[in-house]
Structures are given as C-alpha cells and as structure tokens.
Design brief:
The model has no long low-confidence stretch (mean pLDDT about 90). The protein has 5 helices and 7 strands. It has about 180 residues and is an alpha/beta fold. The longest helix has 16 residues. Bound molecules: S-adenosylmethionine (SAM).
Length: about 180
C-alpha cells in the first residue's frame, strides 16, 4: 500500500467502538491512532485491548481540536455526513492522511471541521455506527491506493493473466545516430 494513514476519533464515548476502530486500523495497516477529547479512558483500554492494536500503533491524545498535531504534510480528512461533504466514491484519498470521526451521539465539532483539509461522506440514507464508518473509509482507501488487478467487466474475479503484477517499465535509452 502506498503512503500511510492514521485514524482518529473525537469525543468518542464507547469502549467497544474504540476497540473496533483501533483493531480495524491495525488490520488495514494504519500507522497511528489518535483521540480528541475522548469521553472514555483510552489510556486504561490500551492494556486490555484484545486485538493488541495499541502495541503496534502509536497512540496520541489531545485535549482539544486546537492541540491536534499531525506529521508534516499529513492531510486531515474529516468523515462526516454533511450537505457539503465530498462523496467518498468520488474522493481521491491523499497519500499521507489522517481520518477523523465524530462521536456516537453527535458530529465532528465545528473546530475540528475547520481544521480539516477535506470532509467526506459515505453516501447513505442516514449515519451508520462510527466503527462501521471507519471500516468503510479504510476499505475505500485500500481500493483507491492499493495495487490490485482491475475488476473484469463480466461478474467474477480477474483472469489469471490480469492478476500478475505489471512488469516494471524501464525507459529504454535511445541513442541518436551521429
Ligand atoms: C453514528 S454517527 C453520529 C450520529 C449522527 N450525527 C446523528 O445524530 O444522526 C458517528 C460518526 O460516524 C461517522 N459517520 C457515520 N455515518 C457516516 C456517513 N454516512 N458518512 C460519513 N460519516 C459517517 C461520522 O464521523 C459521525 O460523526
């Protein structure tokens, strides 16, 4: 997978969602996990997390959106169902990105939305569970940036030939005749 990504949550209040999102982030190859003003003791959870995710990803906690600090050149992507959000299937995921999700009973705060370089939504009739939204986002990133064989036009998997990685195209040097 090209680039890297981090996953963050704002105002999250359920341990189960933190565990699910951290586990998904670890599984999809996330590089770090962060929380802004969590309403649950994530520090305590880190020792009891069954997926061991917190042993493999750095965790950062911020007391407010203003304190959020990301790596240089890392693009902050808010995932929120707003009228003006970009529809995820039409969104080009940045190579270096951090995705932030809102609380179970609310939405991303105006201060966090203000800090986002992009805000995207999963086109749906209504909000899904934050853990589901996080998993869909990571899956969409993987489809967008991963190196997979093209989907065939007919139903089913790619032909054997299409599964092979494309050979590297060494640019041939052409010598001019004197
Ligand atoms: C369950 S939703 C919050 C509830 C919602 N604001 C409401 O009251 O209807 C929790 C978080 O999941 C994310 N989320 C859920 N469904 C989404 C969607 N369809 N598109 C983008 N984000 C979504 C957002 O980050 C949201 O803040």
């Amino acid at each position: 997978m090209r680039g890297y990504f981090g996953i963050g949550v704002e105002g999250i209040s359920k341990e189960q969602n933190v565990g699910t999102i951290a586990r998904s982030a670890h599984s999809f190859g996330g590089s770090f996990f962060f929380a802004i003003q969590p309403d649950v003791n994530i520090e305590a959870m880190r020792t009891s997390d069954t997926s061991d995710a917190f042993n493999h990803m750095p965790y950062y906690q911020y007391a407010s959106p203003a304190e959020l600090a990301l790596p240089e050149d890392c693009t902050l992507v808010g995932v929120e169902l707003t009228e003006n959000s970009i529809e995820m299937p039409s969104f080009r995921h940045p190579l270096r990105a951090a995705y932030v999700f809102g609380p179970e009973m609310g939405s991303l705060s105006p201060a966090t939305l203000e800090r986002c370089d992009h805000v995207v939504k999963i086109p749906m009739k209504f909000c899904v569970n934050v853990g589901v939204a996080a998993a869909i986002t990571m899956y969409d990133r993987m489809i967008c940036l991963g190196r997979f064989a093209e989907r065939p036009v007919r139903p089913g998997g790619p032909m054997e030939e299409a599964k092979k990685p494309k050979p590297h195209n060494h640019r041939r040097k052409v010598r001019k005749k004197k």
